[in-house]
Amino acid sequence: EIWKFKAGGWITTEPAVFEGTVIFGSMDHFIYALDAATGREKWRFNSGGSIESSPVVSGQKVFFGNYDSYLRALDIKTGIEIWRFETGSWIESAPACHGGNVFIGSWDSCLYALDEATGKLKWKFKTGGDIYCAPAISEEIVFQGSSDGYLYAIDIRTGAEKWRFKTGRSIESTPVTAMGKVFFGSHDDCLYALDIFSGAESWKYKTGSSVETRPFAAGNLIIFGSHDHLLYALDGESGEVIWDIKTGGKITSSPAVSEGIVFFGSYDNYFYAVKID
Fold it and tell me: pLDDT by residue (tens digit) across 152-173?
């Protein structure tokens, strides 16, 4: 252990690391910025609501949402609020930044596109259910899952719908794009691979329970976990199982890959490191 820092509540967000600063939110309503080397607090910001929305850094700003329904932009050096934008309900998902805009989904069922610099609304897109997962962006398309069971493909410039794809249950899995496809899971127990441009199903793989992790694309492999206790590696082109790893609990921790090793956590209280091959 190099250092540890005690916040005033649970920490469920993924940290953002930028130029020697690590930033995370807590259920104590604060977002914290710490020196990554020492753990020394640089600043904290009281957001007025519990934070489960993982922060994202872009253009010297920190973007995050919380349970008071606001998306906020803070100065990364000082923690001073630059702007905030009010949605119609809680924000649980992380924002995504692209091309000078920031995109955020809310429990009010809408996806918002805002100007990064000013917080001005560019467009909003209404789905049929609450939004729990972050969007993915590729080929000037924003991909957003919703609790109505649909994955939506939305024109990044206009907010117009390009296509939608219906799954069997709610989507909490943040999508990932690779190989000309968008990959995501659903509470209908399946991982899906769709053509980015048409939304046509390339393949789907049915696991033994819900899939809510964000898949990770590593070469030609798509790696993800399921509530059935398994971590899977599938061939991204065919959907064929290359390998799987059994744990002692459901997996909601999205995997990460570095130098040929897959890292992930499980409800069995273990954190795993597995060779990708």
Answer: 999 999 999 999 999 999 999 9
Measuring CA to CA, how many Å separate 11 from each of 29, 270, 271?
10, 18, 17
Mean pLDDT of 246-252: 96
- For β-strands 271-275 and 161-166, DSSP reports them as unpaired
Determine the pLDDT at residue 86. 98
CB 122 within 8 A of CB 110: no
CA distances in angstroms from 57 to 102, 183, 207, 270, listed in the order given: 10, 24, 34, 29
Q: Tell me the DSSP string of the chain.
A: -------SS---SPPEEETTEEEEE-TTSEEEEEETTT--EEEEEE-SS---SPPEEETTEEEEE-TTSEEEEEETTT--EEEEEE-SS---SPPEEETTEEEEE-TTSEEEEEETTT--EEEEEE-SS---S--EEETTEEEEE-TTSEEEEEETTT--EEEEEE-SS---SPPEEETTEEEEE-TTSEEEEEETTT--EEEEEE-SS---SPPEEETTEEEEE-TTSEEEEEETTT--EEEEEE-SS---SPPEEETTEEEEE-TTS-EEEEE--
Query: For position 277, what pLDDT does the model report?
Result: 86
Beta partners for residue 222, in sequence order: 217, 234
Give the C-alpha separation, 276 to 264, whole Å: 12
As a whole number of angstroms, the distance between CA 275 and CA 277 comes to: 6
